[in-house]
Write a structure and sequence with these properties.
CATH class of the largest domain in chain A: Alpha Beta
CATH architecture of the largest domain in chain A: 3-Layer(aba) Sandwich
Strand content of chain B: under 5%
Strand content of chain A: 15-25%
CATH superfamily of the largest domain in chain A: P-loop containing nucleotide triphosphate hydrolases
Order of helices and strands of chain A: EEEHEEHEHHHHEHEHEEHHEEH
Bound molecules: adenosine-5'-triphosphate, iron/sulfur cluster, magnesium ion
Distance between the termini of chain A: 19 Å
Shape of chain A: globular
CATH topology of the largest domain in chain A: Rossmann fold
Number of strands of chain A: 12
Oligomer: heterodimer
CATH superfamily of one domain in chain B: MetI-like
Number of helices of chain B: 15
Distance between the termini of chain B: 12 Å
Helix content of chain B: over 70%
Chain lengths: 330, 312
C-alpha cells in the first residue's frame, strides 16, 4: 500500500495508509481506508469523488480534527519533517494555522458570529506573538490581499453583515494570514454563485503561485479540477482508487470508476461540470463489499474482483491505480 | 440600540400597568367591603362609615378609583398598612435590603458553581464525572426547599453550631439561607450550560478556531464558552425577581426580616395595601430584569443586536 507519488525530499505532505472510522451505534463506519498520497511544495492536488466517499474526513485527519466519534485507526501523516500523528496536542495546535491550515466546507457558518471579521483574523495573527495593534493592521492588509474592498471598514463588520463570498474571503484570509506551507480547501466554492466561485479560485491560485503554498482542494466539480489542479486523486468508498496528473487523468482515465465519472461529466458548455449521478449506489461504509468496493457497480469487473481487494500500484508518470483489470492489461 | 431599549422600556411599563389593572380588578371582586377591615360596622355608626368611605374615595366610580390609586403608586405611595398603620413604602424599603442580601449572593454563588460544573460536564460528556454532576444537581432539585432548610439547620446550626439558626445576626446568618436558595436550583443552570456548550462545540466555527491554531483552552474559553454563555447570562437576569418572589418560604423558616416574610404576614392578615405594594414591586423587578436581560443579550450577540435595531 505504500505509494509515493512525489519524491519524499520535496514532499510537503505525505499521507501513508491512512484509515479513519466513526464508531456509531450502527457499527464502525470505515470513512477512510488505507489512503496514501503525497504532495510536493506548491502543488495543487485535487481530491474528487461522490458525496460521502471520505474526502472531508481525509482532510480533517490531516488537520487532526476528525470529530468524535471518529478516530484515526492507522497510518502516518508527515508534514515536511514532522510526524503529525506523533505530536502532542499543544505541538499540533502550534502546527495548525502556522504550517497547515484549512478552509471548511460551509463558509456561511464557519466564522464565529460574535466577533468582528477583523478580530478573527487578528486572533490568528497574534498567535505569532505579534502585539495587538500590529496584528490588527496586518489583519486589514490580509483582507486587502484576499481582495476585499475597503478592508479597514470591512474588518469591523460582523460575519452576518457580510455576503457569502465575502465571508469565504475572510475565512481564506484568516487561514493564509500566517503563510502556511499547505492549505486545505474543502469545497471552498460550493455555496457561492458562479462569478464569486471564479474569483475565489483565482485568488487561491494566485496565493499558490506567489507564496509557494501547496493547496489540497476537495471538490465535486471536475470543471474546477481541470482549471486549477496539478494532480488529482479519485476517491471511492474511502479508498483512493486512482491518482494522476490532471491532463493524463482526463485524457486516459485508468480506473473504471474514473471513467464513469468522466462520462458523467456533462459536455463542456452544458451545466457547470458537476458530477451527475452514476448508476448503482454508494456502498454502505459499515459493511463494505468484499474485494473491490466498486465491484457491484463496475461494468468491467473480473472474477477476482468480488473476493480480492485490488492494491494501489504505480503505473508510471506519477500515476497510481487500484484495479485488478489494470494488473492484467498493462 | 437606544431606540430598542426605549421600546422595551415602554413595553415594560405597559406590562406593569396590566399587572396593576388585574390587581385592581381582583381587589374589586374580593368579597367584603374594605371599610369593614378598618371600621367595625357594629360599633361605628353608618354616617361615620359613609364619611370614611368618602374620605377614602370609595364612593367614586371604579375607574376613577383606579386612576387615583395608580397615580399614587407611580408616586411611590402604596398607602399604609391596615394592621400597623406604617407606610407601605417604608415597610418595603426596610425589608427589601434583607431580601436582596440573600438573593444576590445566592444568585452569584449559584452561577459560580453551576457554570463551571456545566462546562466540565459538557467537556467530559458521557463520562462518569458528567453523570455524577448531572445526577447530583438534578437530585438536589427534587429536594423541597423547606426540607433542605430544616436539614441544614439541624446539622450546621443545632449540632455543629457553626451558624446561627435563624434571624439576622450578622453575615454568618446568611450562610444557611443562601445555601437553601442556591442548591436546589443548581440543576437547571448546570443542564442549560452543559447543553449550550455541547451545542456550541458542534458549530463549524469551533473547527475554524482550532484550524487557525488555537489551543484547546483558548478555543473553549473564547469561542465555545463565550457563545454558549449568552443564554445563560440572560437566565441570570431573569432569575433575580424569581428569587425575590420565591423567598417567601425560606424567609419564614429562617425568620428572615425580608420581603417574603412581609408578604406572608400581609397575606395572613389580609393587609391589602402591603400585598399590593409587594406585587407591584415584584412586577416592576421582573419587567426590569427582562429588559436588562434583553439588552445584555444584544450586547453579547451582534446578531440579536441587529435584529433588535431593525425592530424585529
Ligand atoms: N460524525 C460522523 N459520524 C458518523 N459518520 C460520519 C461522520 N462524519 C462523516 N461520517 C461518514 O463518513 C463518510 C465520509 O464522510 P465525508 O464527510 O468525509 O465525505 P465527503 O467525501 O466529504 O462527502 P461530501 O462530498 O458530501 O462532503 C460518510 O459516509 C459519512 O457518513
Ligand atoms: S478491481 Fe474489478 S471491480 Fe474494481 S474497479 Fe477494477 S475491474 Fe472494477
Ligand atoms: Mg465533505
Amino acid at each position: 500500500m505504500k505509494v509515493m507519488a512525489a519524491p519524499p525530499e520535496t514532499a510537503i505532505l505525505q499521507v501513508d495508509d491512512l484509515s479513519v472510522c466513526f464508531e456509531t451505534s450502527r457499527g464502525s463506519v470505515q470513512a477512510v481506508s488505507g489512503v496514501s498520497f503525497a504532495m510536493a511544495k506548491g502543488e495543487v492536488y485535487a481530491l474528487v469523488g461522490e458525496s460521502g466517499c471520505g474526502k472531508s474526513t481525509t482532510a480533517l485527519a490531516v488537520m487532526r480534527l476528525v470529530p468524535p466519534p471518529g478516530r484515526i485507526r492507522r497510518g502516518h501523516i508527515r508534514l515536511g519533517d514532522e510526524d503529525l500523528l506523533a505530536l502532542s496536542d499543544e505541538a499540533m495546535a502550534d502546527v495548525r494555522g502556522r504550517r497547515l491550515a484549512m478552509i471548511f466546507q460551509n463558509p456561511l457558518v464557519s466564522l464565529n458570529p460574535v466577533y468582528r471579521a477583523g478580530s478573527q483574523i487578528e486572533e490568528a495573527i497574534s498567535l505569532d506573538s505579534v502585539p495587538r495593534p500590529v496584528a490588527w493592521r496586518r489583519a486589514i492588509e490580509v483582507l486587502g490581499r484576499v481582495r476585499i474592498g475597503d478592508p479597514a471598514e470591512r474588518a469591523l463588520r460582523y460575519p452576518h453583515e457580510l455576503s457569502g463570498g465575502m465571508r469565504q474571503r475572510v475565512m481564506t484570509g484568516m487561514m493564509i494570514s500566517r503563510t502556511p506551507d499547505l492549505l486545505i480547501a474543502d469545497e471552498p466554492t460550493t455555496a457561492l454563485d458562479v462569478t464569486i466561485q471564479a474569483r475565489i479560485l483565482d485568488l487561491l491560485m494566485d496565493l499558490c503561485s506567489h507564496s509557494g503554498m501547496a493547496l489540497l482542494i476537495i471538490t465535486h466539480d471536475l470543471g474546477i479540477v481541470a482549471e486549477i489542479a496539478d494532480r488529482v486523486g479519485v476517491m471511492y468508498a474511502g479508498s483512493l482508487v486512482e491518482q494522476a496528473p490532471v491532463y493524463e487523468l482526463y485524457e486516459d482515465p485508468l480506473h473504471p470508476y474514473t471513467r464513469m465519472l468522466m462520462r458523467a461529466l456533462p459536455r463542456l458548455g452544458k451545466g457547470q461540470g458537476r458530477l451527475e449521478t452514476i448508476p448503482g449506489s454508494v456502498p454502505d461504509l459499515i459493511a463494505l463489499p468484499a474485494g473491490c468496493a466498486f465491484h457491484p457497480r463496475c461494468p468491467e469487473r473480473l472474477a477476482i474482483c468480488a473476493s480480492q481487494t485490488p492494491v494501489s500500484r504505480v503505473v508510471g508518470g506519477g500515476r497510481t491505480v487500484a484495479c485488478h483489470r489494470g494488473e492484467v492489461d498493462r | 440600540m437606544l431606540e430598542y431599549v426605549a421600546r422595551r422600556l415602554a413595553m415594560g411599563v405597559l406590562t406593569v400597568l396590566a399587572v396593576t389593572v388585574v390587581l385592581f380588578l381582583i381587589m374589586q371582586l374580593m368579597p367584603g367591603d374594605p371599610i369593614r377591615l378598618i371600621a367595625d360596622p357594629d360599633r361605628i355608626p353608618p354616617h361615620q362609615i359613609e364619611a370614611l368611605r368618602r374620605q377614602w374615595g370609595l364612593d367614586r366610580p371604579a375607574h376613577i378609583q383606579f386612576i387615583y390609586w395608580l397615580v399614587n403608586i407611580v408616586r411611590g405611595d402604596f398607602g399604609r398598612s391596615i394592621v400597623t398603620g406604617q407606610e407601605v413604602r417604608v415597610l418595603i424599603a426596610t425589608r427589601m435590603p434583607f431580601t436582596l442580601m440573600l438573593a444576590v449572593p445566592a444568585l452569584l454563588l449559584h452561577y459560580t458553581l453551576a457554570v463551571p460544573l456545566g462546562l466540565l460536564a459538557a467537556i467530559r460528556s458521557g463520562s462518569r464525572l458528567d453523570r455524577a454532576i448531572i445526577v447530583t444537581t438534578s437530585a438536589l432539585r427534587t429536594i423541597p426547599g423547606f426540607w433542605l432548610a430544616i436539614l441544614l439547620m439541624l446539622v450546621f446550626a443545632i449540632n455543629l453550631r457553626w451558624f446561627p439558626i435563624s434571624g439576622y445576626q450578622g453575615p454568618r446568618s446568611l450562610v444557611l439561607p443562601v445555601l437553601t436558595l442556591t442548591l436546589p436550583m443548581l440543576g437547571g443552570t448546570v443542564r442549560l450550560t452543559r447543553a449550550e456548550v455541547l451545542e456550541t462545540i458542534r458549530e463549524p466555527f469551533v473547527l475554524t478556531a482550532y484550524a487557525k491554531g488555537l489551543t484547546h483552552n483558548a478555543v473553549r474559553l473564547k469561542h465555545v464558552l463565550r457563545n454558549a454563555l449568552i443564554p445563560v447570562t440572560v437566565m441570570f437576569f431573569l432569575a433575580l425577581p424569581w428569587l425575590v418572589g420565591g423567598s417567601v418560604i425560606i424567609e419564614n423558616i429562617f425568620a428572615w426580616p425580608g420581603m417574603g416574610r412581609l408578604l406572608w404576614t400581609a397575606i395572613t392578615n389580609q393587609d391589602l395595601p402591603v400585598v399590593q405594594g409587594i406585587i407591584v414591586i415584584i412586577a416592576v423587578l421582573t419587567v426590569g430584569a427582562n429588559t436588562i436581560g434583553d439588552v445584555i443579550s444584544g450586547m453579547l450577540d451582534p446578531r440579536i443586536r441587529i435584529e433588535l435595531e431593525e425592530g424585529r
